[in-house]
TrEMBL record:
Keywords: DNA-binding, Phosphoprotein, Transcription, Transcription regulation. One of its GO terms (molecular function) is transcription cis-regulatory region binding. This is Stage 0 sporulation protein A homolog. The modification 4-aspartylphosphate is found at D51. May play the central regulatory role in sporulation. It may be an element of the effector pathway responsible for the activation of sporulation genes in response to nutritional stress. Spo0A may act in concert with spo0H (a sigma factor) to control the expression of some genes that are critical to the sporulation process. One of its GO terms (biological process) is regulation of DNA-templated transcription. SMART domains: REC (SM00448), Trans_reg_C (SM00862). Pfam families: Response_reg, Trans_reg_C. Residues 123-219 bind DNA. It comes from Clostridium liquoris. SUPFAM superfamilies: CheY-like (SSF52172).
Amino acid sequence: MSKILVIDDELDILALVKNALQKDGHLVTIAESPKRVELSSLNRFNLLLLDVMMPDIDGFAYCQKVRNLVDCPILFITAKTLEADVMYGLGLGADDYIKKPFGIGELRARVNAHLRRETREKRNILAVSGLEFNLAAKEVSVNEQRLSFTKIEYGICEFLVKNRGQVFTKEQIYDAVCGYDAEGDSFTIAVHIKNIRAKLALYKLATISTVWGIGYKWD
């Protein structure tokens, strides 16, 4: 079962989509406007379906606003089918277009295809804060450009990303990355984090915050 958010200002479309996707066992949340959805709740969804033409904020603007907040597929449901519109939407970070009017079979098939692909890819890929972590290769990249992180720098980033929002001391980070039996000094964590920040600053990314008197966290 996947959690799907559908945003469309047409109540009949919301009802139609919700009924169709529930038949596949998905948990579907609907909203008439993006303003009815708390940004902090978006991470719990496995896929977003957005109408493009809405009165409060259109789907293009909303996609651009939330794309860096979520790493799940975003699909547009829209009557705007000109090639320029499609290219623009995909350029904002959307994964697919479902053109109105659409068939229920097509809707279910395309949604489920994206969910299956996401399930396969997320075993090894983690996208967050503008970065893409290849968990199998132990690499991190920005816009498909691999960053030159050392093994420890990568380990620090992966640990903090997987525990995003939590604060850890230098000792906790050192033990998690290097192991409890490692021989070294936890104070070197501060040096590694300084180097990480310098490398990310080249891409105008600031992701690791210092919590004074405690330690560090990934924002």
